[in-house]
Amino acid sequence: MRFTKSIPNMFTLGNLFCGFLSIGFAAEGEYNNAAILILIGMMLDSMDGRLARMLKADSSLGKELDSLADIVTFGVAPSFLVYYTYLNQLGKLGIMVAGLFPLFGAYRLARFNISSTKSSLNYFIGVPITAAGGILALLTLFGNFIPNVITTVVFTGLCFLMVSRIRIPSFKEIPLPKYGTIVTLFIGCLLFVIYKGTYKQFPYLIYIATPLYIAYLAYRFVKKKNSKEELE
User: Fold this and answer.
1) pLDDT score of 23
2) pLDDT surpasses 70 at 25
3) Percent residues over pLDDT 90 in the chain
4) Sign of the C-alpha dihedral computed for residues 17, 187, 45 and 35 taken in this order
5) Do 138 and 33 meet the contact criterion of CB atoms below 8 Å apart?
6) Which of 19, 110, 112, 145 qualifies as a FRET site for 71, CA 20 to 30 Å off?
7) Alpha helices, DSSP H, located in the chain
8) Helix axes 129-141 and 148-162, enclosed angle (nearest 10)
9) What is the pLDDT of residues 26-50, one digit of tens each?
C-alpha cells in the first residue's frame, strides 16, 4: 500500500530529474536533447496528479514536491536553454535576462498554490509555467527554422504572461491530460525529427516515454468514454 501511494511522487521526481538532465545537456551544447527532456518532463507532470487521484494518494507532500519540480524543469531548465542558444551573445546581461524566467515562474507557482480551488477548476490566472517552459523547448527544438528575434520576443512575452491576470482556460473537462495539446505537438515534432533522419542525436529515454504516454492517453480517453456511457 505504501509503495502504491508513493508512485505519483516517483513521477514527480522523474519530472525533476528530467529538468536536471536538461540543464546538463544544455551546458554540453546538446540543445535538442535538453529541449526533449523538458517535454518528457511535461509528460510526467501531466500524469502525477491524475495518478495521485486514481490511487487516492493525494498529499501535501506531493503538492509541494510538484511545485519544486516544476520550477526546475519548466523554469530554470528552459531559461538555461534559451541563454545557451540565444542570450549568451549578450554576456552578463544575457544571463540576467534569462534569470527573469524562473523568477516570474516561481511567482506564478506561488500565486497558483494559494489560489482558490473553485477558480482553478475552470481557468488559470496567467500562463502556467509548464506550458511556458514547453513552448520555449519547442522553439529551441526548431531553432533552425525560427528567427532569433521571435524566440526572444516570445521569451519576454511569456515572462509577463505568467504573472499577468489573464484568464487561461484549463481544459480540464477534455478527456486528455491537461497538457495533452502540447504533448500532441511534441509527438508531431518527434515524427518530424525521425523523418529528417536525425533521431540518433536524441536520448533513448524518448523512445520509452512516448509509447508509454500514448498508451496513457488512450487509457484516459477510453475510461472517460466508458464513464459517460454508464451515466447515460
Assistant:
1) 93
2) yes
3) 16
4) positive
5) no
6) 145
7) 2-27, 31-54, 60-71, 77-85, 92-98, 100-113, 117-122, 129-141, 148-162, 180-195, 205-231
8) 180
9) 998 888 888 888 888 888 887 777 7
**Residues with Cβ within 8 Å of residue 86, at least 6 apart in sequence:** 94, 148, 151, 152, 155
CB 113 within 8 A of CB 67: yes
Specify the higher pLDDT residue, 108 or 200.
108
Taking the C-alpha atoms of residue 100 and residue 106, their distance in angstroms, rounded to an integer, is 10
Question: Average pLDDT, stretch 86-93?
Answer: 86
- The radius of gyration of the chain's CA atoms, rounded to the nearest angstrom, is 18
Helix/strand/coil (H, E, C) string of 110-142? HHHHCCCHHHHHHEEECCCHHHHHHHHHHHHHC
Residue-wise pLDDT tens digits, 45-70: 877 777 777 777 777 787 888 889 99
* 4-34 per-residue burial string, b: 16 or more CB within 10 A, e: under 16: eeebbbebbbbbbbbbbbbbebbeeebbbbb
17 and 25 Cβ atoms separated by less than 8 Å: no
Residue 144 cell numbers, joined: 533552425
Quote the CA–CA distance of 65 and 100 in Å, as a whole number: 22
Domains of the chain: 2-231 (1.20.120.1760)
Q: Evaluate if pTM is beyond 0.70.
A: yes
